[in-house]
Fold this protein.
Amino acid sequence: MSISTGEATIRLLAEYGVDTVFGIPGVHTLEFCRGLGAGSAVRHIQCRSEMGAGLAADGYARASGRPGVVLTISGPGVTNAATPLGVSWNDSVPVLLISADTARGAQGKGWGVLHEVSDLCAVTRPLTAFSARAMRSADLPELLARAFGGFGAARPRPAHVAIPVDLLEEAADGGWSAVPAPSRPQPAPEAIAEAAARLEAARRPVIIAGGGAVDGAAALRTLAERLGAPIVTTSAGKGVLAEDHPLSLGATLCRPETRALLAEADCLLAAGTELSE
C-alpha cells in the first residue's frame, strides 16, 4: 500500500531516532499530520506560534543531545521560525526545519497563492548549514540524510528542507531508509599528545569552556581537577562546571579579574568555544 510523501517523511524521521516534533498544523501540512496519526512513533507538540515551536525544538536539542525538529506551513510559518533558527545557528544547535512550500506549478508565477514567498529557501539560507527545496519524492531521503549527517559529522547548525504542498500529497517513491551517520571528526593523535604535554608542563593552566563542551563536561571537570586549573565559561557554556565547584569562575570573561588571570596563564585550554568577542 502506497503512502504519501508527507507520511513517508514522518516515518523516515522516526528511523533517524526522532520521537518528537514541534509545530502548528495547517492546511499545507495535512499530509504530515496523516503520518503523525495513531501508531506513529513520532509525537507532535502543538505550540502557540512557529517562533515558539522553533525555540522548543532548540531547547529539546540542547536538553536531549538529539536534533530538534520543527514542522511548519510555508510563508509566515517559516518567517516566524527564522528567529529561532538564528538562535540555533549562533549556538551551533542541531535543529531541522521541515516546511511546506508553494505548489511546484505555481512557483515563480506571482499568482499570490496562499502563503506564497517568492523564494522560501532564500529566507533561511543565511541561518542554516543548508536550505533546499525538494522537487520530487526521491529528493527527500537524500536531503534528510544530508541534514542528519551534518548534525553528526560537522558543526551542528540548523538545516531547512522545503516540500511543495503538491509533492507532499504524491505517493512516495520506493522504500526510504535512514543513512548511518558518518563518524565525528577527530583530531590527529600527535596534536592531542602535544596538547597533553603542554598542559602537563604548565604551572598556571586555565580552561575556557564554551557551549560546545557540554557533552564533554565530565571529562573536562576531571581534567581541571587533575591540573588544578580554574574553568571560566562563556555564556553558552554555563553549566559545564557547577557554579559552586571550587575551580569554577563562572561566566566571568568580561571581568577584569578574569582577564588578568588569563593574561598570567602559561597554558590556556579553550574547549568548545569559537573565542568570539
In short: The radius of gyration is 22 Å. The first helix runs from residue 5 to 15. The beta strands are 20-23, 43-46, 68-72, 95-101, 130-133, 159-164, 205-209, 231-233, 248-250, 267-271.
